Write the structure tokens for this entry.
Amino acid sequence: MNRRGFLQLMGATSVVALTASCNRNRSVIGTLSGPPDLARFPEKTEMILLTDRPPQLETPIHYFRQDLTPNEAFFVRWHLEGVPTSVDLRTFRLNVSGHVRQPLQLSVDELRSRFDPISIVAVNQCSGNSRSFFEPRVPGGQWKHGAVGNAKWTGVPLKSILDRAQVKAGAVDVSFNGLDAPPLPSVADFVKALSIDHARDGEVMIAYTMNDEPLPMVNGFPLRLVVPGWYGTYWVKALSDITVLPQPFSNFWTDKAYRIPSGPNGTESPKDFAKDTIPINRFNVRSIFVRPDPDEMLHWGVPTEIEGIAFDSGHGIRRVEVSTDGGATWVDARLDPEIGKYSWRRWRALWTPRKRGQYRLMARATNAAGDTQSKEQWNRSGFMWNVIQQVDVKVG
Ligand SMILES: Nc1nc2c(c(=O)[nH]1)N[C@H]1C(S)=C(S)[C@@H](COP(=O)(O)O)O[C@H]1N2
Ligand SMILES: [Mo]
């Protein structure tokens, strides 16, 4: 390749060193109330920047106007600054050890060739998605609604790997560690765990592709855990170590972080914190508008398609209702065909505003178990937001 071709390739793929993240293309400088900062990381398109060390990137909502979220636009969330920037597949091994009779060290090639693959379309959503809408505000990444995405994951059921390793009797938990490392010994390594029964349910999987392509580095190349219906915190990226444990797993990330009040929908009062907390687990039911945009100008007498996505932890979305008068009246949205119980389901409704003015749109999803979205919600961590969304639009 000549130099020109090389430079073109650089431009087209935005190859900038992940470690030198100040090299990113920062195309918009935001103010507190102004437009967000945008950043372009390697293998990614322009994303909304929350932090660059560690990388935390939010997906612009218009990418949700399709069933699957493109890899280059899929949100990114890491906890520790030491994120992997390259992985050599010749030396990389997935280690399976602990309370097993047959510890394993598997290359990605071996995972691909020695186990039957499965594919699942599933939503990955950060526990803190939509955190910026909590009132009073809570600390943590101030995500809007874009810390979520829907992808087709292909890989090996975790059960197949655990069976191959021959789990011994008395196993309780399975822990998962990735290649990211704490910057200082005082910072807890990011390690998460599932119960042995959950780990062996046949659906939890180790994915080597996302939408039929290798995972982007920042989304966990070369392997990541996929835990359908559960919050993203369990979906350990750049997965390198699986440890079967004969006792319950415990660390900072399970004992102190990622806990929710044990009451209904993880809600508590800002004035009186819940005493009992439990580890965060399955998604609650929610919907997100993807059209119109909040500041979009609509025209009276012109049919307008209102559109969104809805999902839950796997029961399936049964109904989405839409209101164009601030919740006074509701009509059923049309649901697109279901493409998998862990996938999101797109919905749409045609609306012809009859006169000029300000309108408040709302959407409310209900799942097959009869669970619906909340009217009010708060918790100290800003987790599990599923308040019925309101979008104010002008009709002219
Ligand atoms: N190794 C590792 N895996 C991780 C994390 C992390 O910090 N390190 N963060 C988790 C959290 S909290 C989320 S929301 C998801 C985000 O996945 P994504 O970056 O591919 O969107 O990754 C999870 N897996
Ligand atoms: Mo997360």
Observations:
- The longest helix spans residues 3-13.
- The pocket of MTE (ligand 1) is lined by residues 74-79, 124, 126, 178, 180, 190, 219-220, 232-233, 235-238 (CB under 6 Å).
